[in-house]
Amino acid sequence: MELEEMKQTWQELSGELEKQKKLTNEIILKMAHEKSKNSLGKMVLFETIGGLGMCMALLVGLLLNMLNGSFQTTPLAVCALLSGALFIFSGYISWDFIAKMKKINLLENSIEESQQNFIALKKASVFYKKVGVWSSLPTMLFFIPVVLKVFIGKDIFTDFAAAKEELFSVIGLSILIAVPMVYFLFRFYSKNMKAAGEAIEQIDEQ
Question: N or C: which end of the chain has fewer CB within 10 A?
């Protein structure tokens, strides 16, 4: 085989290898995108229904009861207003978290941009977890009197003795529901955040 033929053959082989490498990278990118999309999509859906949806439903319920004059005493009205403010704040957190998740698109964004967006999402996740833990107690304290008034018709501020049994029952039930729910949420978000992070690491290793 002449030298020119050897060079041509080598160039053809190099070209084929380059095409194969490019195709492999594209497949890895698409697989990583699907993995991150599925993980982030689960969190977006959960946050939309369990975060924004629930906050909107609670706010509408509070507003309707306020318009109907359910909270006639000042302490109860203050609890309703503070509960509403906390629900608005929680709704904003859910909206911001969803917006940050939707920014991550491995097919449309560069690797650097995807990494920056994911770092921002991780920081927001850590911060919002802390906010959720610290705001859970005041939310419960403000909202339980509202619940007792709406569903049982008792105001703990005007007749504590009559509502004492129901109050402790609601507190106990809230704790029983909250503990496993918080555990489930932490596992759910940690698992999907980890999967999304692994997907971004896959394209970074190319």
Answer: N
